[in-house]
Amino acid sequence: MDILRSIYEVTGFIVLIALGVAALEGYFYYHFKFHDRSWFFPAALLAFPALALAVSAAVTGGFQPRLWSWFLMAELLVLAGFKYAVKGRHTVPYLLLAPAFVGLALLLVYPFVFEVYLSFHDLKLTTIMMWKNTGKIPFAGLDQYVKVFTTSPLSEVSFWALLGRTLLWTFSNVFFHVAGGFALALLLNNAIRFKGFYRTLLVIPWAMPQVVAVLAMRGEFHSQNGFVNIILSKLTAAFPFLASMGIGPVQWLSDYPLLTCTIINVWLGIPFMMVVILGGLQSISSSYYDAADIDGASYFQKLRFITLPLIKPVLMPAVTLGTVWTFNNINVIYLVTGQAGGTEQADILVSALYKAAFTYNRYSYSAAFAIVVFALLFFISVTYLHGFDAAKEER
Questions:
Q1: What pLDDT shows up at residue 18?
Q2: Which residues contact 233 (CB under 8 A, 6 or more apart)?
Q3: In the beta sheet, which residues pair with residue 124?
Q4: 283 within some domain
Q5: What are the tens digits of pLDDT across the range 296-347?
């Protein structure tokens, strides 16, 4: 019975999605078909908001003026677009793109707009019931943005300390990702035996689910039975002078949580950079190296004057993606520290944002915090893209 119920629920969901897509296609087809009729504008302006009113009343059990006003404004924009811009052209492409566009708008645009709205208000545990009962949230203006920079999102670490730690975390991870990936790519670009096997073996950390990889590596840093401390114990037993230098087993997860997260994330990120850089190296024509050999260039001269300039346009987008991913990488921090309210010694901006929202229930503050993080990432991405454009022009 449970299996039949599950099949029924999945089938119902598929039918609901199909009906929604059909209604959407019919909605836009009407605008394409009758955009040039004299009654097009008033009929659509009366019919579709009324239909939206009926559907919202049936679904929510009452009249929702805000939802209806939003649909009315959207309908005005659609009518104006079809009346003065589209004018019935490119019917099939628009109809094919409409479901994906609406889906992305619901999944991405609406949450972002609501987050911006929330950041200018004051939603927290003491005001959430007011929002539930009245639909209104106290307006706070720029107060939440001021609090982002002046108050701590956590109990011990300030925003500026988190920003510095995040920049250090991002730079160190991306640096070792690129350095390690570049070194491995150079090795695999040579004519060596079992190159395909080595490449497959090195890609495994990146290819496996990140949760599995992180938890597996977390176990290797266990204080007693972890592989890292066992190796350190063996080394200090074989070479006693290492113990006098302070080298030996340590409590990685409690004493050095950020360093542990960094080591694990470097291990996870190197394969991606290796694959990207290896593809770029294989696209460089061998004629450049043949000409350099004739001129008597050394290996490092070829690396500096041929490989690095030609690999730069491939490397810049990968570094941009790696920077954004690392800056926003809450998975490693969360899984290694073990809990949402765990140690703050390993927290970066996004993990502090998560705790502020779901541990301390500061929703509007977290929304403003997220907008600030988005602005930082936007600035970093634009800076990298300018460098990428310059690299393409040099090439």
A1: 87
A2: 248, 249
A3: 362
A4: yes
A5: 888 888 888 888 888 888 888 888 888 888 988 888 888 888 654 567 788 8
**Residues in Cβ contact with 46 at an 8 Å cutoff, skipping those fewer than 6 apart:** none
State the residue range of the domain holding 214: 151-361
CA separation, residue 45 to residues 32, 48, 75, 373 (Å): 15, 6, 7, 40
288 has a pLDDT exceeding 70: yes
pTM, two decimals, is 0.78
Task: Give the chain's domain count.
Answer: 2
Neighbours of 10 (CB within 10 A): 10
Output helix, strand, coil percentages for the chain, rounded to the nearest 5. Answer: 80, 0, 20
Residues 183 and 322 in one domain: yes
- DSSP for residue 339: S
Together in a domain, 200 and 302: yes
Domain co-membership, 87 together with 221 = no
Both tokens of 59, joined, read: 């679904």
**276 closest CA partner among 390, 197, 177, 201:** 177
Are 222 and 269 found together in one domain?
yes
Asked if residues 378 and 317 have their Cβ atoms less than 8 Å apart, the reply is: no
Cα(174)–Cα(105) distance, integer angstroms: 32
pLDDT of residue 61: 62
Based on the domain organization, do 113 and 208 belong to the same domain?
A: no
Name the 3-class secondary structure at 121: strand
**d(Cα 58, Cα 350) in Å, to the nearest integer?**
39
3-state secondary structure of 139: strand
pLDDT digits (tens, 9 = 90+) for 56-94: 666 666 666 666 677 777 777 777 777 777 776 777 787
Q: Copy the structure tokens of residue 297.
A: 């260039």
Same domain for 161 and 120: no
Tokens of 2: 């449970």
Mean pLDDT of the chain: 82
Question: Given the structure tokens 């990428």, which residue do they identify?
Answer: 388
Co-location of 116 and 163 in the same domain:
no
Distance CA 228, CA 250 (A): 9
Minimal CA–CA distance to 273: which of 189, 180, 190?
180
Q: CA 132 to CA 163: how far, in whole Å?
A: 34
pLDDT of residue 300: 85
- 82, 99, 130: which is the final residue of a domain? 130
Cα(312)–Cα(392) distance, rounded to whole angstroms? Answer: 8
Q: Are residues 87 and 160 in the same domain?
A: no
Find the CATH number of the domain harbouring 206.
1.10.3720.10
